[in-house]
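Can anyone check this?
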Amino acid sequence: MAGAALTSLDNLVRANPPWAGAWRARLALSCAAAAARHVGRAEDEAALRDSWMLRPTDGDPGPAGRLLAAWRRLAERSPNVEATTLQSTGALLGLGWSSPLAALPEEIDRLAGERRPAPLVAAAVLRAVDAAAPNASLLGWWLADQMLALRLRWPLPVPLLMGEAHSAAFRGASRGGRLRPGDDGFEAALCLAAAQGAGRALRCAAEIAPRAAQLQAVAPKLRAKGAGEAIARLFEDDAVPGTLATAKLSRWAARRLFERLEALGAVRELTGRSSFKLYGL
């Protein structure tokens, strides 16, 4: 199941549609919301999106926003498990850099060299993180997607597995509770989670693709100066503020542009608010 689902996902990743940036960003948002639940926070996707979009320029988005920053980093950068990357990501996830964590890059390199299917390597990395630092589970799930990308030779990771960490795949069969990385059956559960995560990512793509096609179709009809930059932003990110202002596009022109695109079915307003609206595919 995992192999078939990941093969379908691999076909999409290698096709690299123009809206792939928005797709990865939306999956990152979903995984960040799952990470927030994992550590007992109350923020859902809408709250996380607000914490990110409402932050001051280059400002701290707060603890919840830093979770989203970690998964956005995953989606935007080439697969990388070097010590500096793990340390900076750990800081976003609220982890201090301890000596057990400092030994992880070498162990991950060893596991990455094993000739095993990608989901089993991801499970082994989760087990290694859990053994080194049980309180670093978020970093383990973050690294698991890195390992999938490395083994499948994807240019950019796809945020998947954190979104399945609390799914039925990890429900303990005999004693209740949830399977931990060191438990028997965890590898099989991780394979099922990979299949479920790939299916969820493909459904997300199926929702985005029609609006992206409509946006491409109406783009030549748009007369607003700077519309091209706004469209590029919509293809690249989960959400764009309705008050977007660029060198060629004023915030008032942007508001009219997004309202027209929404009327044409090319974008949707994501908040339901009457002010500070956010738009996306």
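Reply from J.R.: I decoded it. The longest strand covers residues 278-280.
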